[in-house]
Design a protein that fits this description.
With 286 residues, this protein is mostly helical. The chain is built from eight helices and no strands.
Length: 286
């Protein structure tokens, strides 16, 4: 079994996208609809016309300018290379078209499993969760085992049931962290009642808000003003950050924040991010 000491470095690199070793699966397997995020409609299993023969995107550097903002937000958590190189042993769907549908069906399942691995890995890295480290380790080992199944077995998985079990552990981890002493406040000054889980905060004015330790699981933060807000130790799993303004916000120490959520938001050089996340290219550098 993996030990708590060596766990963070063992998995985290595998849970980052490696497009060089993927067969462009997100460009084929996933559907999208004409919207502010996509310039046209594409069905699942249909190849995006921007995908080149080498599995690279022909407009990668101009995706946002050409109406494909959704592509710059999406995160597979390393599922693309896992399915391409491990599950299907490096045999791409163009050369083995008989495997294409199965590969495309497996990809979103693997993406969900890898997302769970990411959350479990983070939970295990937290000192406050020491009392449940053994349970977290078992859950991680089981989830990783599922990612090693044959494709025929993967598509038979009851992913919602497994996610429900994992979520109970993540909830417990969140409670253990947020029940501890809050870190020192950053620049935020506003005192207000902290919103709760699943809160509808679309377009809300939360500028400078003290949101330390808040439970914002599944919160709708679409286009919310979070400038200079303090979100240290806030549980952000599943929170919708589309077009949220996080310029100057402090997200260090926040729980279960992913690169996809950050990609969907608008920040700047003053936004403080957890060490495992990076500033998106579209963010302001000033």
């Amino acid at each position: 079994m993996r030990t708590v000491q060596n766990l963070p470095n063992l998995l985290r690199d595998d849970l980052r996208p490696d497009c060089e070793n993927c067969f462009g699966l997100c460009c084929v397997a996933l559907p999208f609809a004409l919207s502010a995020d996509f310039a046209f409609t594409k069905n699942a299993g249909e190849t995006c016309p921007n995908l080149q023969s080498d599995f690279r995107c022909g407009i990668h550097k101009d995706l946002r300018q050409k109406g494909f903002r959704g592509c710059t937000v999406y995160e597979c958590f390393g599922a693309g290379q896992k399915v391409s190189q491990f599950t299907f042993k490096g045999k791409d769907w163009r050369k083995t078209p008989e495997t294409a549908k199965l590969m495309f069906d497996v990809f979103p399942i693997m993406q969900q499993l890898h997302e769970m691995l990411l959350y479990l890995t983070e939970a295990l890295s937290l000192q406050a969760t020491a009392s449940i480290h053994s349970d977290l380790c078992r859950a991680l080992e089981e989830t990783e085992r599922l990612t090693h199944l044959r494709p025929e077995s993967l598509i038979e998985l009851d992913v919602p049931a497994h996610r429900a079990k994992i979520n109970l552990l993540l909830l417990r981890a969140s409670e253990l962290v947020r029940s501890g002493p809050l870190p020192a406040r950053s620049r935020s000054k506003k005192h207000r009642k902290k919103p709760g889980r699943g809160a509808d905060l679309i377009g809300a004015n939360l500028r400078g808000a003290d949101l330390r330790g808040a439970n914002l699981r599944g919160a709708l933060l679409i286009a919310a003003d979070l400038r200079d807000a303090d979100l240290k130790m806030a549980d952000l799993i599943g929170a919708d950050f589309r077009d949220a303004d996080v310029r100057g916000a402090d997200l260090t120490g926040s729980l279960f924040l992913t690169q996809a959520q950050i990609n969907a938001a608008n920040g700047d050089a003053k936004t403080k991010l957890p060490s495992m996340l990076s500033q998106p290219a579209h963010w302001s550098t000033s």
